[in-house]
Amino acid sequence: MTVPDTVFTEEQLVQARAGLRDGDAHDVIAWALERFPADRRVVVTGLQAEGVVVADMAIALDPSVRVLTIDTGRLPEATHRYLDTLRDHWGRGIEVIHPDSDEIQSFTSEHGANAFYASAQRRLDCCHLRKVAPLERALLDVDCWLSGLRRGQSAQRAGAEVLEIDDRHRNIAKVNPLARWSGETVRGYLREHAVPAHPLYAEGYTSIGCAPCTRAVSAGEHPRAGRWWWERGVDKECGIHALPVVVPLAAAS
């Protein structure tokens, strides 16, 4: 992979990964905040536990660090209330970006407000307009973004590195400080540091996205089973962290 000199050379990438291999999440975040100028780095969170942990650690190191989330236009009301809770907890603002209203109007006019139920492709189109494209625009002016991605979240994320080159976003740096963490470690951090958790976790949700596309899970279900639960043969991804693969129904059955 060719990496622009403005972010990393291949040699720098290898050296940086080696230096971070044994570091804890705090060390990884501290490295990223020091390595990249304040206006060229951002913490991105969907307000789930992992991203909130990364944001909390980053704010402790740099109270003015940029923290960004996406309001897709279909979020649960509980998520909006939680965003206010976090603003109060941290005593600071959180950047909120939105999808392009013209693109959403065109899509819903042609396909309907709930087109994501019609087919996997319509769902992926909706995710792209409401999540992926807004993030792409937000990352145009940064060299590094920090996420709450964990290897244990899904098979598609099992190979996540603590430091990656994001070839979907201009080859900028993507830092996943919690890549090696377990879900229990994430929950333990929130308890230990008295960081408020999203209220939907208490109602049986284990992965929280848009209201129509997220439900609580039952005992024994995979933590991401509540995302797009009506689909078969499609990766439980929106496209922000991985390109979802649609498997023909005949092959998926």
What share of residues is helical? 25-40%
Number of strands: 6
How does the major sheet shape up?
6 strands, mixed
DSSP summary: helix tally: 8
Mean pLDDT: 91
Sheet/helix structural class: alpha/beta
H and E string: HHEHEHEHHEEEHH
- Rounded to the nearest angstrom, the distance between the terminal CA atoms is 36 Å
Gyration radius from CA atoms, angstroms: 18 Å
Strand order within the widest beta sheet: 3-2-1-4-6-5
Outline the fold blueprint:
Blueprint: H1 10-20, H2 25-35, E1 41-44, H3 49-61, E2 67-70, H4 77-90, E3 95-97, H5 101-111, H6 120-138, E4 144-146, E5 163-166, E6 172-175, H7 183-192, H8 249-252
Helix pairs in contact: 2-3, 5-6
Give a written overview of the molecule.
The protein has a six-stranded mixed sheet with strand order 3-2-1-4-6-5. About 35% of the residues lie in helices and about 10% in strands. It is built from eight helices and six strands; from the N terminus they run ααβαβαβααβββαα. Residues about 1-5 and about 250-253 have low confidence and may be disordered. The longest helix is centred in the middle third of the chain and has 19 residues, at about 120-140.
Name the features.
about 10% strand, 6 strands, alpha/beta, about 250 residues
Short description:
By secondary structure, the chain is of the alpha/beta class. Helices cover 37% and strands 9% of the residues.
